[in-house]
Amino acid sequence: MWIVAAVLTMLCFGINNMIFKVTSVKGLSKVHLQFFFYLIAFLIMFGYGTVVGFASFNGLTIVLGAFIGILNANGNIQMSKAFEKGPASITSPLISTNTIIPILSAALIFQEHITLIQWIGIIVILASAAIIQYVPSSGVKMDYKPWMYRILLSIGSFGVLGVLMKTSSHLHIDSINTLVCMYGGGATYLLINSFMMKEKWQQTELKFGALIGCISVVGYSSYFFALNIGVASIVFPIVSLNCLVVVLSSCWLYKERLKKYQVIGVISALAGIVLTKI
Fold it and tell me: Which of 26, 49, 136, 241 has the fewest C-beta atoms under 10 angstroms from its C-beta?
């Protein structure tokens, strides 16, 4: 059942990432879009927690949840900016290599066993990432250095986020409490950013934000369920396959074309991710 939850998380994250890609060309504020996303998700989780009952809150739950929310918000913002600098069909697989960070933490910190095949998968992912980003494909506009900078920031944010989520599960912190703190902390962080940036608010941001928020609640609820019940070193790679949704959608919607070796890089990256879950 936890594998099904991990797959559902993968689909939810893939759909949301594609929405971020679509909205990146509509001139919408990335901060405002994220704020509405977090606000709606917070209201949903707070309402759900009020009905079913909350576990006891403590300082660790609040800090850990808020930090997860801030990292997720920053990762999504950096990813959206990366989409503006380069093709989503390359950007998304590269960002998905963040799975290496929580996989290694699961082995080194939480003592989960990583098999030889999984280690091979990790090496294949790293090699594929180098192949994919080596030279921009012809016909695709790409601002290389800012693009790679945003990708690295996104990888770091999502990678540490995965470690903290596993930490939350390892400490048996109630997932509802964590999600409420996550969305509440993220919304506060984004609201502060919006005051600093002073961007114009648009009604479309609320519509897309609400959609992403609803999908996120399903995705993260499934994510915590999978981490609580299943094996983290398998859950993380399955979730990282969300890049496949973005790759296929981008090639279909935006007619993005890759060089042959980049296609091989994308395929081998996906193959490496699959190997890490065997």
Answer: 26
